[in-house]
Design brief:
single chain; two-stranded antiparallel sheet; 23% helix
Length: 177
Amino acid sequence: MLASWFLIGALTTTPQMSVQAATQSAVEDGGMTPAVNRMVGGIASYARWPSGTATTRRHMCVVGTPRLAPRMTPDTPGRGSISVSYVAASAVNARCDILFLGRMPAADRRQLIAWVRGRPVLTITDDDAACLYGAMFCLNSHAASLSFSVNLDAIARGPLKIDPRVLRIGAGDGGAG
């Protein structure tokens, strides 16, 4: 389950956002690409879209060039699946339930983050480890682990509901990071 994948780290507060970090020490289970796909699928499985958009199949649009996983095939635990398409920033549309932002020009990133505000779109990036540019979840790798930061401000601005357990996992360990 997701609890075995994520260990919540220390809570960091900045003036404009609250970011929480988590780590996955599972890179040894087959490399970075499978770890990224497990983490992205796990994050998506804990997101709840507003009523009227219920489905067990979500669509992820990948924009830019992912740094950590050249082939995105999110592995969702339990029911549900995620289809993936690689699109240009100008081709992102309402069909995208999840927006994965890889390396791209800053202007494109700003435009996409502005477009998703208020929409039921889960945003994940692997090109902003500190989560400064508006994505909800930001992946980062170091040594033999994969981590993510959560931008609570970005989550609060949208209609998606993220299961609070994602933010509380590891609380039993005192939230040490």
